[in-house]
Amino acid sequence: MKQTIVIAGLGLIGGSLAKGMMRSEDNYIIGYDVNQDSLEFARLNGIVHRTTTFFPEAIEDADIVILAAPISESIQLIGVLNELPLKKEMIVSDVASVKSSIIKAASTLTNEKICFIGGHPMAGSHKRGISAAKAHLFENAIYVLTPSIRSTDKKVETLKNVLQYTKSKFVILSPDEHDEMTGVVSHFPHLIASSLVHQARKWEDTHTFLPNLAAGGFRDITRIASSNPEMWQDIFYHNREKMSVLLEEWIHEMIDLKGLVDNNKKNDMILYLKNAKHYRDGLPSKEKGSIASFYDVYVDIKDQTGAIASVAQLLADHHISIKNIEILEMREGITGVLRLSFYSKEAQSKSSTFLQDNGYDTTIL
Ligand SMILES: NC(=O)C1=CN([C@@H]2O[C@H](COP(=O)(O)OP(=O)(O)OC[C@H]3O[C@@H](n4cnc5c(N)ncnc54)[C@H](O)[C@@H]3O)[C@@H](O)[C@H]2O)C=CC1
Ligand SMILES: O=C(O)C(=O)Cc1ccc(O)cc1
């Protein structure tokens, strides 16, 4: 059955959803955004069927509306929707990284034609805007749904059917459970990553050479500090109660850790690190989920012209596509390490074998 789907906010997430849902001929997709350039990009690249900057016109014939603007803007749009005269019933969902404030806004809806179901596709990127949108962004990722009092199981199934083209895995959670868990594994790590970067920046005043020593570990743990600051401020604001509890807990943990360092508690420190390693190693890291991870191969390469191209060409010759390629360490004139990420375990192991057969040193961690 043909469905008219409106995506309000055609940025990284809205654009990726649109691209995923365009896979079905049953979906007629309208893009709404306040930014003309995003809409033009979407039109030129066939990401949606139609675009508009006028919200009432966008939702006129909608069966499903997905709010994909920044959290505070999506909350406002819920209020706007409530005031609009609607011709027919519609499912309204969102993609916001925090669910309690969205569901709170939805609970004030009085328009009987609206069935609200909160949503959060748990995958993203440090980039923003529609030009970074990818059809496969949510493949195998967890997609949390938080039904409100204004939804039914049948409507949840309808929404899942439409969203199935994103190829994500649906999980139903309460808003509070969602905000607590994402607080721990997604939001709080962003705060810490930013604070580590600040610490390094301050120490650079003492040691100007310091940035040159910022190798793989520092870059890995602070990668997420390069994300969209306005979006993360909005997330921290809406999840501020959980953030405050987590910060309090973290401060205590750091004080305990300082005790281990100051008093040279060797065995306690080893145990602390062992326990962390054990838990980290046991995370479901080979599937894309709330912690995105891929099948990686580390390759030692020489610092010489064409070194990366040779590795890429070798894999291309064997029809293996690389999901991501990153230079982890490159010391001038010596060697470096490339991290190649693949979509499957099979591609990972084949690549490693082909590379080794061609004289490269590879490691799979
Ligand atoms: N970036 C990420 O990794 C993830 C973000 N999210 C959530 O997705 C939402 C959007 O984030 P992104 O797509 O990353 O941001 P983005 O900055 O790439 O896109 C936001 C879009 O919303 C538009 N917009 C702003 N105010 C609007 C309004 N009043 N009406 C219509 N459009 C409006 C902007 O022009 C922009 O095109 C946020 O609520 C965020 O919490 C969820 C999962 C992952
Ligand atoms: O895993 C992370 O924390 C990311 O950086 C990607 C991301 C960002 C925001 C979300 O709401 C969900 C996923």
Automatic annotation (TrEMBL):
One of its GO terms (biological process) is tyrosine biosynthetic process. Belongs to the prephenate/arogenate dehydrogenase family. It holds the Pfam family ACT. Residues 296-365 form the ACT domain. It comes from the Bacteria. Its EC number is 1.3.1.12. Residues 3-291 form the Prephenate/arogenate dehydrogenase domain. SUPFAM superfamilies: 6-phosphogluconate dehydrogenase C-terminal domain-like, ACT-like, NAD(P)-binding Rossmann-fold domains. GO terms for molecular function: NAD+ binding; prephenate dehydrogenase (NAD+) activity; prephenate dehydrogenase (NADP+) activity. NCBIfam families: PRK06545.1-5. Keywords: Amino-acid biosynthesis, Aromatic amino acid biosynthesis, NAD, Oxidoreductase, Tyrosine biosynthesis. It catalyses: prephenate + NAD(+) = 3-(4-hydroxyphenyl)pyruvate + CO2 + NADH. This is Prephenate dehydrogenase. Pathway: Amino-acid biosynthesis; L-tyrosine biosynthesis; (4-hydroxyphenyl)pyruvate from prephenate (NAD(+) route): step 1/1.
